[in-house]
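Need tokens for this chain, all 214 residues.
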Amino acid sequence: MVILLDDDIWFPSPYGGDPDGLIAYGGDLKIDRLLLAYSNGIFPWFSFRDSDIMWWCPLDRFVIFPNKIHISHSMRTLINKGTYSITLNTDFKGVIENCSRANNRYDQPGAWLGKKMIEAYTELYNQGFAASVEVREGDELVGGLYGVNIGKCFIGESMFSLRPNASKLALIYLAQVLEQNGGLLIDCQLETAHLRSMGGEHITYEEYMKYLNA
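Here are the structure tokens for all 214 residues:
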């Protein structure tokens, strides 16, 4: 049963949610609630134009382990060309705004990365709980991703690409940085062919929480 959240900061058990992982709706995007959510494998995802905040916690999780990320021959070739520079946390604002608007995303039905979401994740970044990866061609930001840091895990929220494979470069860079610093996993939230080709795999919610609490 989906439960409407009140003004208190709490969440229902994910085991009582819908089969697709929807466990609650309502509440707000305050930092304390977001941190409580992510610390329990829960994340907000909703159409900002026409629905309340919806909270999700799938019991089947799709993740990438940093030390198991697949780098194809073509991606290795692209990396070795040195066409793009990649950085960490140098333009969070630029990345999240591009994630919202690149390829006309903002104007599409069901768009979820609206003003309130951007403000909430920017505040998470300002407090050290979110991070971004930037891909540049010269001085132009052409790709990147952002997400939330919980313990030794990175919960990916969105990525964008204005050049072929720019978001893949950001993901590979993120995995390498995490591996070098003891990071355990990247939560992809949703399975896509793109992420599956890069080493994404399914684990249970119970396994996921062990990594999140490590």
